[in-house]
Amino acid sequence: MNAMKKIGLICTALFPLVAHAEIVASQATIFPTEKAGQPSAIFMQLQNTGNETVNLLFAESQQPARLELHGMHNGKMHALNGIEIPARQSVSLKRGGLHIMVFDLTQPIQQGETFPIKLFFDDGEVVEVNATAK
């Protein structure tokens, strides 16, 4: 089999993976903590490059911690069942707005450290993100 056919087969095999990658996460940060057990929060930009609205359902971490989706309403924080990201639009997870709360940390998060998380969406997409402590 010549090289061009091999490249074509590889591209065809990978196309479903590339075509499905619709959410782009960027600028992910997490608040450093001084001690274990102290809550933190994760912020980032989520861009939906697809033609359908998707919903962030939940987030998980490799590190021992409990992650919750949160929003603010009338100055009060509350848990959310999901975060909608409209087609061809971006949503900001930021201080005073939508964000991911991090509870029950077994170790503090140091300045400059990365905190890996996975974001799970209702279309089956899973996005891996490294939030930097700032």
Automatic annotation (TrEMBL):
Gene3D superfamilies: PCu(A)C copper chaperone (2.60.40.1890)
Pfam family for this entry, one: PCuAC
Highest taxon listed in the record's lineage: Bacteria
Signal peptide from the UniProt entry: 1-21
Protein's UniProt keywords contain Ribosomal protein: no
Keywords: Signal
Protein name: Uncharacterized protein conserved in bacteria
Organism field: uncultured Avibacterium sp
